From TrEMBL:
Keywords: Membrane, Transmembrane, Transmembrane helix. The keyword Transmembrane helix applies. The lineage of its organism: Bacteria, Pseudomonadati, Pseudomonadota, Alphaproteobacteria, Rhodobacterales. Coiled coil: none annotated. This is Glycosyltransferase RgtA/B/C/D-like domain-containing protein. The keyword Hydrolase does not apply. The chain crosses the membrane at residues 21-40, 91-110, 122-155, 167-191, 203-228, 275-292, 299-318, 324-344, 351-371. It comes from Tritonibacter horizontis.
Length: 487
């Protein structure tokens, strides 16, 4: 490392020498190791959601509609400028980016003198929360946004607090075009760093810069959508079933939808263990009280950060009727983890380890179990691919993907997940008869029918291979499976 850069690191961290630099790098490395160990069942063959395959395949043309309906211009440009990578490599880079972000955030929040176990526990508590786990199944799509957050974290370590604050103007619009939650993760660094001159004026300035930067990002997305799609805005995709508010009655109806999702979120954040939800809420309230009693601003800053994020989500939900899923709340767990870290500093060493490290280990255990429950989908689809083999013939799939037992554990949302998974494993063109029944009419009559019971089989016909699944669904469909004719 060049001497000038090393000196800059040392100056910003208030330390001298390579040993202290290694402390920060060690925190990042251990965070990365913890994230990867918790995801160990997924690492060799990560599970992807159906709308993440376009990013895996670098299908910029197929991803392009998301720039209109979701404003994901950063991801689109990333697909244009990069080559396809193996899924395990993308997953490792995604987790590595979050490890850098979390390491930088925790270092800035607690400093070099705080014990390594405490900082690592805070980082893993945030990184292994249920929202962060749920969103990790879109790792190919979210990789560029995660890299932006990591880069911002590194710059905030290197630069004075004032510079990091004003860098929001550049980074928030870019991060917003990657994913809605990303700007709030940048705000979390500004509101939790210990060298911030906490005061009402400083807090107002940070929030004003953030809101202005967020508005700038929205204006940039609107402008790009107008230039390339002819619409000044972000029209919601039909599959999201938007119900825009046009009067008080419709706005109240959307509030009811928001309340329903908040009830779902209460279960999700504790991995469907409601007693744990109450424990987490109780610890959060205790942290606010205990930390706020010692330093009111140290509690107010993260609390207002959470409130800012929830307000943005609520406005979006009431305005459009589209309620964000629980996975967008990862930002709230970042603030929450920092608050618990500050709480642990006021407890005895044993109580702190039981509270902070114990909760981090509990989240790690739940993460391993959750990832393991989804491995059956990879195993089952690989069995299909082994039986099907590779070749130039088109693969036709009869029956329904909902008859595969693994769809329940892996929470598969769409028939497209099976089609694109088989494309990925076999390299063949794949046609699902439940998506395109007319395309399957050319099959011999004996092969058009689904398999009996819950069995499956593979048959070969002239110029085609047929995977016959059962037509008995094991659960209701979550998203309609019929693909538009244009596709």
């Amino acid at each position: 490392m060049p001497v000038a850069i090393r000196a800059l690191f040392a100056d910003r961290m208030g330390v001298t020498g390579d040993r202290n630099l290694r402390g920060l790098f060690l925190l990042i490395a251990l965070t990365f190791a913890g994230l990867m160990l918790a995801a160990a069942p997924q690492v060799p063959d990560p599970l992807l959601r159906h709308d993440d395959f376009q990013a895996l395949f670098n299908d910029a043309r197929g991803y392009y509609p998301k720039t209109r309906s979701e404003g994901r211009w950063l991801n689109y440009l990333w697909l244009l400028w990069t080559d396809p990578w193996p899924a395990p490599l993308s997953f490792a880079l995604y987790q590595g980016s979050w490890a850098v972000y979390l390491g930088a955030l925790v270092h800035l929040a607690f400093g070099r003198d705080t014990e390594l176990w405490r900082k690592l526990s805070v980082a893993l508590l945030a990184g292994l929360s249920a929202p962060m786990l749920l969103i990790s199944f879109w790792f190919n799509t979210l990789l560029p946004g995660a890299m932006v957050c990591a880069a911002y974290g590194v710059l905030c370590v290197l630069l004075p607090e004032r510079w990091g604050r004003w860098l929001l103007v550049a980074f928030v619009p870019i991060a917003l075009m990657g994913y809605t939650m990303n700007p709030l993760l940048l705000l979390a660094i500004c509101l939790t760093r210990r060298d911030a001159p906490r005061s009402a004026g400083h807090l107002a300035q940070v929030l004003a810069i953030f809101v202005g930067s967020f508005a700038l990002g929205m204006l940039l997305i609107y402008t790009l959508n107008f230039a390339y799609h002819g619409v000044f805005g972000i029209p919601m995709a039909d599959w999201r079933t938007p119900t825009p508010a046009h009067d008080i009655a419709s706005a109240l109806a959307n509030v009811d939808r928001l309340v329903e999702v908040l009830a779902l979120t209460a279960r999700v954040i504790s991995y469907d263990t409601m007693p744990l939800t109450y424990v987490l809420l109780g610890l959060g309230l205790l942290a606010l009280f205990q930390v706020g009693r010692r330093d009111v601003w140290k509690a107010a800053y993260p609390l207002l950060g959470i409130a800012m994020g929830l307000a943005l989500i609520a406005v979006q939900a009431i305005k459009s009727g589209v309620v964000m899923p629980p996975r967008v709340l990862g930002f709230a767990f970042v603030f929450y983890a920092v608050l618990l870290g500050h709480l642990s500093q006021s407890l005895s060493l044993r109580a702190a380890r039981v509270t902070l490290a114990g909760l981090a280990m509990l989240f790690a255990m739940f993460s391993v179990l959750q990832y393991r429950n989804m491995v059956s989908w990879q195993h089952e689809t690989r069995r299909f691919a082994t039986e099907i083999g590779t070749g130039p013939q088109t693969l036709f799939v009869t029956g329904t993907y909902l008859s595969i037992p693994a769809v329940r554990g892996a929470a598969i949302q769409h028939a497209r997940a099976l089609r694109l998974r088989l494309v990925y494993l076999t390299g063949r063109d794949v046609v699902l008869c439940e998506e395109e029944p007319q395309a399957c009419e050319a099959l011999p009559p004996s092969l058009r029918h689904p398999a009996t019971g819950l069995d499956w089989s593979v048959a070969h016909a002239e110029g085609a291979v047929v995977l016959r699944l059962s037509d008995i669904p094991l659960r209701p469909a979550r998203i309609p499976t019929r693909r538009p004719a244009a596709n």
